TrEMBL record:
Naturally occurring in which organism (per UniProt): Thalassotalea psychrophila
Residue ranges occupied by any Soluble ligand binding domain in the UniProt entry: 128-175
KW Signal (keyword) present: yes
Lineage top rank: taxon: Bacteria
Protein name, UniProt field: Polysaccharide export protein
Key words of the record: Signal
Signal recorded as keyword: yes
Domain Polysaccharide export protein N-terminal span(s) in chain numbering: 43-117
Pfam families per record: Poly_export, SLBB
Entry-linked InterPro entries: PEP-CTERM_polysacc_export, Poly_export, Poly_export_N, Soluble_ligand-bd
Matching NCBIfam families: pepcterm_export
Residues of the signal peptide: 1-29
Length: 212
């Protein structure tokens, strides 16, 4: 009885595995992630762009009732007292202020708006992503004139298993991905400042694990 039960159980498990494997083989690959190039080509041309999660302080001169603090939603929009669903992500604070003035002109006479930011995150396309054998792999908000050394300080340096001199920087240039070798170990462990380079919004830094 027990032997027959085990045989039946084994048969069922075999059939389940076959169905599962057939299902896996018929699954379609998802499309490659859409590339959204950063809007900054050089450090000198950098202007901070608003992104989801940013805390905005919107001041409307002589109209405190429509002023206030607002968080940019995950869809990149904000809603204020008189303005609904206005796109904010990807704009500079000045560009957003002008857009709000245009909307408020329907209700107020010659509105004057100022937008300031108290929590800086920025759009994903403008962040620097560090993956692999960093002590704290994460996305880092770009700051003007930021260098590789600044980024590595922000992520806590390398792990003990990192191969820092085989690290790669991936950058979108003219719509195409380009890769550049980095010498992070020389920079932060040997103090070779020549290995320091300027980083730009949208850069991806990949730090592999050492083979031994």
């Amino acid at each position: 009885m027990t032997k027959g039960y085990l045989s039946l159980k084994s048969l069922i498990l075999t059939l389940v595995c076959i169905v599962f494997l057939n299902g896996c083989s018929s699954q379609q690959a998802l499309p490659t992630a859409t590339i959204y190039p950063a809007k900054t080509d050089t450090a000198a041309s950098y202007n901070y762009l608003i992104g989801p999660g940013d805390q905005l302080n919107i001041f409307v001169w002589r109209n405190p009732e429509v002023s206030g603090s607002f968080v940019v939603r995950p869809d990149g929009k904000i809603t204020t007292s008189l303005v609904e669903d206005i796109p904010a992500s990807g704009k500079t604070p000045t560009q957003l202020a002008r857009a709000i003035e245009e909307r408020l002109a329907t209700y107020l006479r010659e509105p004057i708006v100022t937008v300031t930011i108290s929590n800086f995150i920025g759009p994903y396309s403008e962040q620097i992503r560090v993956i692999g054998e960093a002590a704290q792999p994460r996305a880092v908000s770009y700051g003007k004139n930021m260098t590789l050394l600044d980024v590595m300080i922000a992520v806590g340096g390398l792990t003990e298993f990192a191969d820092g001199n085989d690290a790669v920087l991936v950058r979108i240039e003219n719509g195409k991905q380009k890769q550049y070798q980095l010498f992070i170990e020389d920079l932060i462990k040997s103090g070779n400042i020549k290995a320091n380079i300027d980083v730009l919004p949208g850069d991806i830094i990949v730090i592999p694990e050492a083979w031994f």
